[in-house]
Amino acid sequence: MDYQNRAGSKFGGGGVASTSATNADRRERLRKLALETIDLDKDPYFFKNHVGSFECRLCLTVHQNDGSYLAHTQGRKHQTNLARRAAKEQKEGKQDNIIPGLLAGVQVRKNVIKIGRPGYRITKIRDPVTRQYGLLFQFRFPEITTDTKPRVRFMSAYEQKIEEPDPNYQYVVVAGEPYETVAVKIQAREVDRREGKFWTWFDEDNKVFWVQLLFKTERDERFSAVPGLSTGRR
Fold first, then answer.
1. Which domains does the chain have, with CATH numbers?
2. Does the N terminus or the C terminus of the chain have fewer Cβ atoms within 10 A?
3. Residue 62 · residue 54 · CB < 8 Å
4. Could you give the 3-state DSSP secondary structure of residue 131?
5. What φ, ψ does residue 3 adopt, rounded to 5°?
6. Per residue in 182-229, pLDDT tens?
7. Among the listed residues 178, 174, 128, the one whose alpha carbon sits nearest the alpha carbon of residue 155
8. Kind and range of the H or E element at 171?
């Protein structure tokens, strides 16, 4: 770092760095150090969220770029939390279950041979009372593993690695072993999660997994974040 020609210093003797300049230099040195020792692809606490920011799942902090995250990993807070996590896992006897690249303490599952994709049917629906548009999914799992129920979750466009991220879309992801996990691309509109609007049901006799979702109306989406106003018509 160049300390020449700073106010309050003698010629040729280096300068007095400001607090902000000193902090910036420290962060840059920490980032370079982290680049030499950390592979972000194998960091279990590194997560890129749907808005493009980077999160530390260990410290619950948000960073605008990977350099900021790397500098954070070399800081006192992150290192202290790492030590606490290691001590806790050692005390609980989970140290042997740690695998590089996976979250610490997660039990290892044996590989399951996939037998193909489940059959599916998608129907457009509309609530007769609220006039909300929605979708009804039917996924067929005739050979699903015994005592296993399919699961569903929503995934943003920035979480997937198959297509170029498009903020106008999101994905409905359904999994049920031993079938392959499938995803359906839908509009990136807010889903109404109230009782009776969004629901799932697994027909164990016919091995059909039902998922219904209704999108919030434009009015509900506009005022959902306004304090004191209702999030939707009931």
1. 22-94 (no CATH), 119-225 (2.60.40)
2. C
3. yes
4. coil
5. -105, 10
6. 999 999 888 988 888 999 999 998 999 999 999 988 777 666 555 554
7. 174
8. strand 169-175
